[in-house]
Amino acid sequence: MLKVDVLNIEGKKVSDIELNESVFGVDVNDIVVHAALVNYLANQRQGTQSTKTRAEVRGGGRKPWRQKGTGRARQGSIRAPQWIKGGIALGPKPRSYKYAINKKQRQLAIKSVLTSKVQEGNLVVVDNINLGEIKTKNMVNILNNLNAKKALVVLNEKNLNVQASARNIEDVKTILVNTINIFDLLKYTKLVVAQDAIKKIEEVYA
Question: Residues 31, 76: one domain?
Answer without folding.
Answer: no
